[in-house]
Known about the structure:
By secondary structure, the chain is mainly alpha-helical. The protein has a domain of 28 residues. Helices cover 49% and strands 0% of the residues. The protein is elongated. The N and C termini lie far apart (77 Å). 3% of the residues are buried.
Amino acid sequence: MSTATFVPAVQPVAIPAIPVREILPWAVFGGLLAMFAIYFVGAEQGATAIFQGMYIHEFVHDARHLLGFPCH
């Protein structure tokens, strides 16, 4: 009785290179979205408020506390 084991050959996987020119517009777009999100979660109240009232503040209230922004 033979106890030979079969080891399959591993083929290398080619990882395609993505040019920076294709990534840059998406990175800028994602950065702007992140900046808007941080503004609305962190600073949309009081003197820096763009919208009147506390609607935005109350909408993102729990996210403020989750991210460590004080609000009251």
